[in-house]
Design a protein that fits this description.
The protein is mainly alpha-helical and 133 residues long. The chain has 2 domains: 47 residues, no CATH class; 68 residues, Arc Repressor Mutant, subunit A, CATH 1.10.10. The protein contains 6 helices and 2 strands, in the order βαβααααα. It has a two-stranded parallel sheet with strand order 1-2. The longest helix has 32 residues. The two termini are 12 Å apart. The mean pLDDT is 93.
């Protein structure tokens, strides 16, 4: 839940400490009504966005977890733009194995190419960062 810190005896150190510990803002009492209202609106909007990011992340992670460990590894290398032959060499398997893994990755992630696989992974990483804040 978002926190708006109100204090009648605030100082800079207290304000900085409150924000570092998660308060969305620090207001001195009595707050100006328009400032309080806008702070509440901003805090609620930020919380809604966080909840949406957490829900989106759960969906992406659920989809990602349908991949086997080998498919996840191949997806990561595909997302870096490596070719089948390079991936096969890196992993010590045949190109046919890589083609099979790529096919399953595209099927399970509902992607069509390396760019979409990369976008999927980057979106998941971005949402993980957002949800950790």
């Amino acid at each position: 839940m978002p926190v708006i810190f109100l204090s009648a005896h605030g100082d800079i150190e207290l304000a900085v400490d409150a924000v570092r510990k998660g308060a969305k803002t620090f207001l001195e009492k009595p707050p100006k009504p328009d400032k309080l209202l806008s702070s509440i609106e901003e805090a609620v909007q930020a919380h809604v966005e966080l909840l949406r990011a957490v829900a989106d992340l759960a969906t992406l992670e659920q989809t990602w977890n349908t991949l086997t460990a080998a498919e996840q590894q191949v997806a990561g290398l595909v997302a870096k733009g490596l070719t089948n032959s390079v991936i096969a060499s890196v992993l010590g398997v045949s190109e046919n194995t890589i083609r099979a893994h790529r096919s399953m990755v595209n099927q399970k992630l509902d992607t069509e190419n390396a760019v979409e696989v990369s976008d999927f992974i980057h979106e998941m990483e971005k949402l993980q960062q957002i949800s950790e804040t």
